[in-house]
Amino acid sequence: MSLSPECSCCHEAGHAVAWVVNGDRLVLVIGRADANLTPEQESVRKAAIVGAGGGAADLVNQLFRARRSGGATIRQGGNSSCEHCKSSVFSDTCPACMKTLTHHLACIFAGGSATAHLLPDEHDGSQLRDDFVQVHDLLQRALTNAEQRERLRSQAEQEAGELIRRESKAVQKLGSELLVRGVLDGSEAEKIIRNNLQISSF
After folding, report:
1. Whole-model pTM?
2. Reduced to 3 states, what is the DSSP secondary structure of residue 123?
3. Which among 80, 9, 64, 23 is positioned nearest to 194, based on CA atoms?
4. pLDDT tens digits, 177-199
5. Residue 120 — left, alpha, or beta (φ > 0 → left; ψ -120 to 50 → alpha)?
6. Displacement of CA 64 from its chain's centroid (Å)
7. What is the helix (H) or strand (E) element at residue 2, kind and residue range?
8. What CA–CA distances, in Å, run from 20 to 27, 33, 66, 138, 151?
9. N or C: at which end does the chain have fewer Cβ atoms within 10 angstroms?
10. What's the rounded Cα separation, in Å, for the pair 58 and 77?
């Protein structure tokens, strides 16, 4: 089942708002499958799988790929070195690394949370397959304990829902602009988001 243009734009707006709140920099936000991308934007879209390394941000970057809906939110993560354990390698015993991972998972869940909250009549869990695959892959790579994975997944889903409810104005404004224009450069999308945020970070 494919997303309607409105649903796809809302989905990507949810991701984009969450990534900005997470402290990442947006590069490109594609709201609809029929968006007319410039050659430069198309090049960015094709090169969307970026990053290599062992940090939580790098793992998310490696797993991030264009969605089958035609939309995509492409961003650049911040410093992948943990300030708490002073390592660039993710540690499941470090509270700060685990917090970073939870926030990243929440950003992935935020697209589905946005459609569930703002477009409940159009929201369909089957449309979130790519997001769920990303979350599953990331958790499998980051954590060996199944109970720990499920606990973190549940926490991230709850965090995403709370974020979208709190920042629904920013999601709606960005989603509306994406519906009209189809695609926004990161700086344009960030300006819309920041002008409508309730808080600036997790």
Report:
1. 0.86
2. coil
3. 23
4. 999 999 999 999 999 999 999 98
5. alpha
6. 9
7. none
8. 11, 23, 18, 20, 24
9. N
10. 8
Eight-state DSSP code of residue 194: H
Taking each helix axis from N to C terminus, what angle separates 95-118 and 168-181, rounded to the nearest 10 degrees?
Answer: 60
Cα–chain-centroid distance for residue 58?
A: 14
CA-based end-to-end distance of the chain: 32
- CA-nearest of 180, 177, 181, 175 to 37 is 181
User: How many other C-beta atoms lie within 10 A of the C-beta of residue 47?
Assistant: 10
User: What would the pLDDT profile of 74-97 be if each residue is shown by its tens digit?
Assistant: 998 866 667 777 666 788 888 888
| Residue bearing tokens 């409810």 | 165
Q: Give DSSP secondary structure letters for 137-185.
A: HHHHHH---HHHHHHHHHHHHHHHHHHHHHTHHHHHHHHHHHHHHSEEE
